[in-house]
Write a structure and sequence with these properties.
This protein has about 150 residues and is of the alpha/beta class. It contains five helices and five strands. It has a five-stranded parallel β-sheet, with helices on both faces.
Length: about 150
């Protein structure tokens, strides 16, 4: 079995991603690896077609980034207390692209990622970040689905 020394776990703060994070932390701890917990702040779309003046994107995006850093710090604090070597990272862009780019640039051995299990119309409209990461990542991807 390969040794996963560098594990990347993208989170969106949903209950599903919390389950994936626990899997990633357990893998990192059992294999003596290091875990990086990633959050991607996606661009915000503005309804300018209706004559509404957009709020400056920098303000909303910087607020979202600051909030994400705070939440990530809380998550990682609990993981580190369990003895896992862990770090956080926040990036900006399209989630699937950023996850693959971070994994490639950081030479990660494994990506552990939640799948929300959307089907039908929701899947068609929203797509699947996990599906696109599995297709485009250069390293193995473990998708985790919450039971029940």
């Amino acid at each position: 079995m390969p040794k996963f020394e560098k594990i990347l776990c993208p989170v969106d703060f949903s209950p599903d991603s919390q389950v994936a994070l626990q899997y990633a932390a357990d893998l990192a701890q059992s294999g003596g690896g290091e875990l990086t917990v990633l959050h991607v702040v996606e661009p915000i779309l503005y309804p300018v077609e209706y004559g509404m003046a957009p709020v400056p994107a920098v303000d909303l995006e910087s607020t979202a980034t600051a909030n994400a850093r705070g939440k990530l710090d809380e998550l990682v604090e609990a993981i580190v207390a369990e003895g896992v070597r862990a770090a956080t990272r926040v990036v900006f862009g399209r989630a699937d692209q950023q996850i693959c780019d971070v994994a490639r640039e950081g030479r990660f051995d494994l990506i552990v990622l939640a799948t929300h299990g959307l089907t039908g119309l929701k899947h068609l409209l929203l797509g699947s970040v996990a599906e696109r990461v599995v297709r485009h990542a250069d390293c193995p991807v473990l998708t985790v689905k919450r039971r029940g």
